[in-house]
# Entry
Amino acid sequence: MHRPLRNLVALALSCLFAHAGDAPDPTVAKVLTAIHAEDIKAIDDRLVAFGTRNTLSDATSDTRGIGAARRWIKSELDKCAAKSDGRMTVEFDEYEEPAGARLKAPVKVVNVVATLKGTAEPERVLVVSGHYDSRGTDVMDTTRDAPGADDDASGTAATMAMACAFAPHRWPATLVFMTVAGEEQGLWGANHYAETAARNRRNIIGMITNDIIGTPVGDQGQRDDMQVRLFADGFSPLLKMMLSAQQNHPMPITPYVPLDASRAQLETIARSGGGADTPTAEWGRYLKDAAERYLPGFHVKLIGRADRFLRGGDHLPFLERGYPAVRFTEPFENFAHQHQDVRLENGVQYGDLTQYVEPAYVARVAQANAAGLASLALAPASPEGVGLEVTELTNDSTLRWQQSSDADVAGYRIYWREPDASTWQQSMDVGKVGRYTLKGVSKDNYVFGVAAVNATGEASLPVFPVPFR
# Structure
């Protein structure tokens, strides 16, 4: 895209923002306007040109295979890091995967990780990923072409484009832009990163994986350029935690329940109606709200499942360790273009080819990601000790929380919705207090959340209140 056309796009986005209802944060708006379809296309095309990116493919060639791909990704991210005044570092995160069901001999698995260190609260971390490995019909075939243009060069391109757009700006929280390997063999790279993060007790406040975000077109002629699916399951991980506690297994790290939470505490949360209000569910609502606020007309279809039916992606290892983690995926999937060798059969073109990827759509999904990531990176930490008073029978609802000493917290916001609503219906800023009563709003009829808000209106993830006596 030529520079005058880029300027027109930026102006158009600014006009859209001006009519979005909420005043946009200028830094968030700058990030979105720095994500371009032509950059997405260039990355996707280059990744496909490596022939195959199967995790078990040649790692030594400079032109073909997984090794050439990861070295090129790092070189491109290094260019973006050069614009960050030293705040962004790019590293290979590698380990050896032992032989197993989809591996005849041990192999080196390498993630490429760009970390943009936060300036105020670097311990608070946001992670966004795409997987750069690919596969054909046989996941063990290391030599046949496996273009992987949609699955998942599209998600890798979006992640790299976001890294470049975020790099020039300063963010209170740390942002990690990660391209991972081994997804097709068994979520290997993501599992390694999540396991290491949990072991080191990293405070990952939100994780996104972008997997198969390349086209708004389905295999039966469906088309919706202005929609993406967002899988955000809040209850299944909580149930898994309860079962783990029941079996006396170590509890995963999670900001939702204490590390050493008892089964009784978990059951209290579940009985209190919090199954749909875990941090993962709140993260999904947050992303939907931010994307639709900054991209008027774009719809994020929020789906209360961890992933598509009996399928999985790189966010699952994070969910399993208690981190809030979600998945973006295109509105329709064409399975002739996934996990297929390239061939023409009975008049049908099979294979994950670049001709089926629409860079403008990928860029729009990347902007949807960026709106939520940037908003939360600017926001203060979520409040702690959030409770709903149950000391007496009343049709009012009194919520309380611990007031933060953080100077960035300007006040607090209470959200509420009817139990059958998937997103927040009402909210109220209540000032810099630690307790507030909503008159005539019955705890029997509504679900609540409390967020911390800074002076510019950026809000944390809401926290579901547990019963307070």
Notes: The chain has two domains: 3-234+278-378, 384-468. Residues 3-234+278-378 form a domain with the Aminopeptidase fold (CATH 3.40.630.10). The chain has twelve helices and 17 strands. Confidence is low (pLDDT under 50) at residues 1-21, 248-262.
